[in-house]
Amino acid sequence: MSVVQIAQMIVITGLSVLSGFLVVIIVIQKAITKPFPAIRRRKEEKHFLDPIAIHNVDFPSVEEAPSVDLSVIIPAYNEEQRLPKMLEECLLFLEEKAKDETFTYEIILVSDGSSDGTVSLGLKYSKRYTVNKFRVLELLDNRGKGGAVRLGMLSARGRYLLFADADGATRFSDYDKLEQSIKSITKDWQEDGIVVGSRAHLEQEAIASRSLFRTFLMHGFHFLVWLFAVRSIRDTQCGFKLLTRSAAHTLFKNLHVERWAFDVELLYIAERLKMPIAEVAVNWKEIEGSKLTPVWSWVQMGTDLFLIWLRYAIGAWQLYEHKKEHDS
């Protein structure tokens, strides 16, 4: 047998093994995966505490008609130290904007199973600003950032819904740019639309300040996002995204991933459903105290990216669109 024939046999055998392995993965994924997400919410997580009246009040649903202009959802896991600065900047901006009586807002702080004083801190703001403007959703166990954002979104009253990171890395006044953008791609909150705050314009500056290894991880992650999921957005991970109420309802009802890669699935679904998406440059600075561990988090997210693509590709995960029945 010639060297060429041996090489051909090795290649054929390798491809057969790989094909068999992929078939096994597909069969397993189809068997263990539910087509639509099971959204977990305990009875105690369906209401918020009014610290002035000292009684619990049921959260509304995103399926109901909106009653404020903007809902700001802030996921927080043990963020007692970083939250005050972020909330002061956020509230200063929103209170100034609310001087125009045509603008109303609410903030929903979602404590994602925090064990520090995150909830107590949030309740102080509820007492200061009243629960009409500031509500605390306390999750009894840690769901992950995506799970926390989802439950906040599903409990919101806004025509437009923004989720913002608790670290305050993005300058909150950049909301005006996102608002202008979303109103340019949709007629109103009853249409689907999403605007993504982006740090892509800061990439070269970030490369200059990062190690070669972290830069390699960043480019590798961006490539995997492009390969498996999102093609139209350069920065999928910035924690500053604005959605219409209609889009929030559809996207978060369909969302499966509850950990770090949830942003990618969110935008992947939006692309699949052909929702209008815009990307807007925002001011951003790195804040100490990130919960991400460089290597393990990238491995976790890389695995999630592959599984997002695979599960939708084989039909293990499916999408549904809700009927738009709201009145303005």
CATH class group: Alpha Beta
Distance between the termini: 77 Å
What's the SSE pattern?
A: HEEEHEHEHEHEHHEHHEH
Fill in the CATH topology.
Spore Coat Polysaccharide Biosynthesis Protein SpsA, Chain A
Number of strands: 9
Give the DSSP E fraction (strand runs of 2 or more residues): 15-25%
Spatial shape: elongated
The average pLDDT value, as a whole number, equals: 87
Q: What structural class should be given to the helix and strand makeup?
A: alpha/beta
Q: Biggest sheet, strands in spatial order? A: 5-4-3-6-8-7-9
Classify the helix fraction into a percent range.
40-55%
Q: What's the number of structural domains?
A: 1
Can you tell me the CATH architecture?
Alpha-Beta Complex
Measured on Cα atoms, how large is the radius of gyration?
22 Å
Helices, by number, come to 10
What is the makeup of the main sheet?
7 strands, mixed
- Fourth CATH level, the homologous superfamily: Spore Coat Polysaccharide Biosynthesis Protein SpsA, Chain A
Q: Which residues sit in consecutive blocks of at least 5 with pLDDT less than 50?
A: none
Which helices and strands, and how do they pair?
Blueprint: H1 3-32, E1 47-50, E2 55-58, E3 68-76, H2 83-97, E4 105-112, H3 118-129, E5 134-139, H4 145-153, E6 158-164, H5 175-185, E7 194-198, H6 203-209, H7 212-228, E8 240-244, H8 245-254, H9 262-272, E9 277-281, H10 294-313
Parallel strand pairs: 3-4, 3-6, 4-5, 7-9
Antiparallel strand pairs: 1-2, 6-8, 7-8
Helix pairs in contact: 7-10
General description of the model:
- The protein has one domain (43-313): Spore Coat Polysaccharide Biosynthesis Protein SpsA, Chain A (Alpha-Beta Complex), CATH 3.90.550.
- The termini are far apart.
- The model has no long low-confidence stretch (mean pLDDT 87).
- Strand 3 (68-76), helix 2 (83-97) and strand 4 form a beta-alpha-beta unit.
- With 328 residues, the chain is α/β, with parallel strands linked by helices.
- It has a seven-stranded mixed sheet, with helices on both faces. Strands 1-2 form a two-stranded antiparallel sheet.
- It has ten helices and nine strands.
- The longest helix is centred in the N-terminal third of the chain and has 30 residues, at 3-32.
